[in-house]
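Lab meeting, action items carried over

1. Structure of the three-component assembly. Owner: GW. Status: complete.
Input record:
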Amino acid sequence: MTHVGDRVLRVDALEKVTGRAVFGSDMALPGMLHGAVLRSPHAHARILAIDTSRAERAPGVRTVTTGQDFPFTFGASIKDQPFLAIDRVRFVGEAVVAVAADTELQAQEALDLISVQYEEVPAVLDPWEALAQDAPLVHPDLHTYRRGGHEIVPHSNINTVARYVHGDVEGGFRQADLVFEDEFFAHALSHAAMETHAAVAQYRPADGGYTLWVSTDRPFQMRNELAAGLGLSSNQVRLIVGCVGGSFGGKNTLVAEAAAVALARRLAGRPVRVELSREEDLVASQVRMPVLIKLKTGVRRDGTLVARRAEFLWDGGAYASNAVGIAVRGPRAVFGPYRIPNVEYFSRMVYTNKEPTGSYRGYGTTQAAWACESQMDIIAHRLRIDPIVIRLRNAYEDGDPWLNGQIMHGVNARETLEVVGREIGWGRVERVPAPHLRRGKGVASMMKETATPTSSNVVIKVEQDGRVVVLCAAPEIGAGQATVLSQMAADAIGVPLGAVSIPATDTATTPFNGPVASSRTTYHVGSAIRMAGLEIRDKALALAGKVLGVEPELLDLDDGVIVERGVGPRTTLRELLTGFGAEGFSLLAEARYSSAGSPLLKADAGLEWASSIFWMIASQAVEIEVDIETGVIRVVKAAAAADVGRAVNPTGCEQQIEGGVVMGLSNALFEEFIMQSGRIENGSLADYKVATIQDLPEIVPCIVESDHPEAPFGAKGIGEPAAAATPPAIANALFDAIGVRIKDLPLTPAKVLAAIEAAKGQGVFEEMGLR
Amino acid sequence: MKRLRPFILHQPSSVREAVELLGAGAGETRVLAGGTDLLVDMKLVRVRPTAVVNLKRIDGLDRIEHVEGGIRIGSLARVSALESSPLVRARCGALWQASRVLASRPVRNLATIGGNLGRASPASDLAPPLIVHGATIQVEGLEGKRPVPIEQFHVGPGVSCLAPHEIITSVFLPDSPARTGSAYRKLGKRGGGSDIALVGVAVSVLLDDGGRVADARIALASVAPTPLRARAAEDGLRGRMPSEESLAAAAEAAAEETRPISDVRASSSYRKSLARVLTLRTLRDALSLAQQEPSPR
Amino acid sequence: MISVTLTVNRVHHEAAVEENITLLEFLREVLHLTGAKEGCGVGECGTCVVLVDGSPVNSCLVLMGDADGHEVETIEGLAGDDGLNALQAAFVAAGAIQCGYCTPAMVLAAEALLRANPQPSPSEIGEALGGVLCRCGAYSKVLDAVSTAAAKGVRP
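Predicted assembly:
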């Protein structure tokens, strides 16, 4: 009996459908106090004075903390962000003062009693401004900050510079028959997880450490970030993670945690919860990093790509957070799943006085795919080549070298393109129901690497009753991690699915894991689980062999039953272990999987650092309907395919594919931040709109498989791809429908209408037989 | 979580009691109907009332009934009750359609017609239909009752003609003659129909026996400081046989009459475009319904 | 303080509460029924939806004074002693649950719909559930779950 490949029911479904799952905001501890945060009204200002005296005397208030009281900084790549603003504020909404009180209302009311004197200083509000010679500096002391080894430009707002060259793009452009140059813009987005950021923190006076109950997708990385920020050793900080109400890349750094820790320090051991309101979550946590992308591509007349140079200007916000990696690695996705012999990118990230940016389902891929896939269609139409044909002509096949020379295995772009083309009825023109409507179809493909190398440790213990406990730090963030990992554990060992449980992550007891991000969990944690599971199985059979007097090679463990070949069932795992009686027994195994050192990573000399242990590929074909009088786009149907290697749980894969389409269309059509002088004007769900069930198109999810030589049970990853292909597919469908190309997101009705009006003026509409 | 600041809660059981409490209200006293506006404002600390007068314990303010000459809708009738009322559906088409696209179902189960009117938002979905239905708002205060024609109700954005001690008790919609058709359309940020109206349009068309437009009423949301009646557009339709050209001209005229602002939801130019398009489409809807009406009810 | 009497999941409660307490706060912090969530607190996200006298409402916008005398149903009250109710089981079977934060509200909104309209069309399902946001985008399978439950003729 095996489970990998089956549509098993999610192991967390029961607690969620009965409302019993405990999320960060449900966490309540005895004696817990409640926090509230006073935030900056200015985009850039010096803090002259803070008077907290009245707040300190307010009813129920236990402590009021400022950055002066708690002058620590943190940061995933650059240690640039204070827990609470110290001497200046750098974005509207930055945390300045935190209050803890007996009730949340008391804490909130106490904020009104705090007065902060600011002196506004000039703010930098867009990346071009940030680059200017005489620009105000968001971080004048950038060069003194502790940081990773990436390139910065000291005494400027440029906090990341990355370049990459492979081949000779200039030569490529000369060889090309045509060269295309286009500029694209991808906008800021909120993750808008339904659970806002929330954390409970407790200081431990005995050892000067902290315990936190958090909703995060990367417990160890957050633990290390906290420890580094506070100057503590990592084992002084303990993180416990319950159910996470959605992350999408947003729950990775210290948001609520920063204020909670700063307060906890002063509460002598009483826990304190800080829960962000939806408005705070929208304007004062993290957003997707906006970027201007210049794409120059040389092609042959038959559509073969010859060379591509990409320039990125990333608008990084006030603190670098974990966005540095996006600026360094994210650009690679702009080359798509295509063979391009000569590639180059130049990427810069700047500080601006706006909300910090960070990872967002794709880690730069959604922005890069927007550019890549929009331009692919521009090229296709100019060359009069079908958009699917041109992609197939260039798509990677197994055995092709990647842009660093690494030989690729387990890449099936072809089938993803073919299946979505079929499912959407590519080439068939749909009947238009009314004169003011137009229909169009568009396709987009994307490819994403996974962070390499990363590692995962797992410990598996089997109790005397046959229950299998898998200790791994892979919080269930909603994508079904717990279920697929349980399936893999059950199959590796040979026990029923119901015998496996994965307790909540606790950094004190669960071993190290990389983040639940980069779609890496199935592959990396799965690999470790498979290794440890097989060891458990061997140990169990060796033990059974001893007890039964049979050679272990003749025994099998299946569904918890120990079977002797040629004889039949001899005992069960439970009976075997229970046989030890009061003496007791736990079967234990541990494994560490790291992608480092894999022969698959071999690449051109000096470029192995850019290798990826696997790639995910996704294609999408959408059919849209445009109302040419209002500019409203409705996605009628989306066929979305993902090359997942092998589907551990097909229902789970569909959940990701379908969910990605919904998020992608919401990102493309409805979501945007309206800014005024650095202030977000629509910082509430009343005016930051995300898709509802009424926006659901018909979705055809297509699971595509490929052969990856090392993937556990053949499975790669799936979480990020689908959301990336949707926006460019929609833009390409829009072009198909009305011959209008929009290169900046979002595709709002007003923007579409304006583009239609402009096109009318240029006669495009006459060409297409429209009014 | 968002917490409400403390307040004194009054739960009068009669209109008189409510009105006296409002009249006597020391400091800020606010009226609570469905709560979908007031409680949001209180949570966002846009208002800080010292006292709240909850009207929902007053019996009989939520009835929807046919009375002589028309329909009377109690001010505390929930928007979802409008949606499910056969009376409203049969006799006040535009109001019925608007009630179906206001916010979401859970909000409609709380929001009331009186609360919606009382907020006097220029984006109200219910006001334009009430305008084209020729509604009268029944108001009661310390000085007694007074009827307020809907077009005198809105004074400015968020400001109605109500005195602080006055509340709306009901809305009266007169019966419309046979061969009336009415409709409501809106467009929100998500393109579809349940977000705050970027533009909303209500139309009522009355045809005479010869099929000419005997009367036309056009009212728009979100295009002016108060819900706007597009009289010039209406004038262009009256007395004529309706045609695609006359409808288009009326829509154009209505758009001309709008004075929309640019705000966080839409630009004024986009609103003007939408006003024209939605007015034309709503005119077609209303006309089509009027043409389907066979004979006097 | 006001005195409030209400039933929650068929259990009678009498409580003395402050006037400014909402039904959401009461459910979560007094009764410790944390299935209803705050996702926005202003009636935009729907994660606080519970049933009051069978109708779905945003409990974040209901004062306890207005819950007085009414019957409230939360997600915790749906399952019987013998397990999940038919709709809950349909959600699980269809794979309609991802992070689970919106699930209580989504299920209750669907429950209310099926009680009033046992054979809803997809657009009717959309209208009934349009007020509950799901950022995981599980809508496709939510639609499947509700349609399946309706097709089976299950009487919730």
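2. GW to write a short summary for the group page. Key points so far: The helical segments of chain C are 23-30, 64-67, 86-94, 103-116, 122-129, 139-151. Chain C is about 35% helix and 15% strand.
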